[in-house]
Amino acid sequence: EPEVTQTPSHQVTQMGQEVILRCVPISNHLYFYWYRQILGQKVEFLVSFYNNEISEKSEIFDDQFSVERPDGSNFTLKIRSTKLEDSAMYFCASRPDGPYGYTFGSGTRLTVV
Amino acid sequence: DQQVKQNSPSLSVQEGRISILNCDYTNSMFDYFLWYKKYPAEGPTFLISISSIKDKNEDGRFTVFLNKSAKHLSLHIVPSQPGDSAVYFCAARNNAGNMLTFGGGTRLMVKP
């Protein structure tokens, strides 16, 4: 069964450093997303991406965040200057056109120290 | 932001019995609802969904019911199995966009 692949599974970084989280969505999917879950809290929407541009973003997705689909297969989330409160599980998701379920990756646990 | 709420943080059920997980929402613009199952250290796994034009959708042991007037949906699992033990999230999509809003989750424990 096709799956969304995320790397790395765990990333530890120092506060103020840049991190890039990587995702390979399912190949025929058209919509791409990043969500995050801070420990003990809800899964929160960050950003959606369609047709090579951001289609929606939440208040969390400020100027420190950016997304890119550099080569038609990878989908990346960059955090320019990490803060302690960025520590969370980050989930990538994708879906095809139409009323279908969103497929999530297994997540990257980001720990900012 | 409490647009999607799962008021029961946990539920314990005996194997073979019915599990009923509940979810309430406040935003009448939601047009599509999904249930996800999540194990620790894994991403959410899609289970079942329902469009706002329906009131029931069934897939094997899983049935989702939607009561639009009450802004309430529920997931029924019959019969429950120990492998169903996980955290279950309901999520809703706004018809003006395509992002999902998640509830806080309910931890289901199915005892053998």
Name a few traits of the molecule:
heterodimer, A: 113 residues, mainly beta, seven-stranded mixed beta sheet, 11 strands, globular, B: mainly beta, five-stranded antiparallel beta sheet
SSE order and pairing:
The complex is a heterodimer of chains A (113) and B (112).
Chain A: E1 5-7, E2 10-13, E3 19-24, E4 31-37, E5 43-50, E6 53-57, E7 65-68, E8 75-79, E9 88-95, E10 103-104, E11 108-112
Chain B: E1 4-5, E2 10-14, E3 19-25, E4 30-38, E5 45-51, E6 56-59, E7 62-67, E8 72-77, E9 86-94, E10 100-102, E11 106-111
Structural write-up:
The complex is a heterodimer of chains A (113) and B (112). Chain A contains no helices and eleven strands. Chain A is mainly beta and 113 residues long. In chain A, the strands form two sheets. In chain A, strands 2, 4, 5, 6, 9, 10 and 11 form a seven-stranded mixed beta sheet that branches. Chain B has 112 residues and is mainly β. Chain B has strands at residues 4-5, 10-14, 19-25, 30-38, 45-51, 56-59, 62-67, 72-77, 86-94, 100-102, 106-111. In chain B, the strands form two sheets. In chain B, strands 2, 4, 5, 9, 10 and 11 form a six-stranded mixed beta sheet that branches. In chain B, a hairpin with a 5-residue loop joins strand 9 and strand 10 (100-102). The model of chain B has no long low-confidence stretch (mean pLDDT 94). The chains are: A mainly beta (113), B mainly beta (112). Chains A and B meet through strand 4, strand 5 and strand 10 of A and strand 4, strand 5 and strand 10 of B.
| Helix-residue proportion of chain B | under 10%
What pattern of helices and strands is seen along the backbone of chain A? EEEEEEEEEEE
Q: Number of helical segments of chain B?
A: 0
Shape of chain B: globular
Series of secondary-structure elements of chain B, N-terminal to C-terminal: EEEEEEEEEEE
For this entry, what is the oligomeric state of its chains? heterodimer
**Helix content range of the residues of chain A, please?**
under 10%
| Helix vs. strand class of chain B | mainly beta
C-alpha-based Rg of chain A, rounded: 13 Å
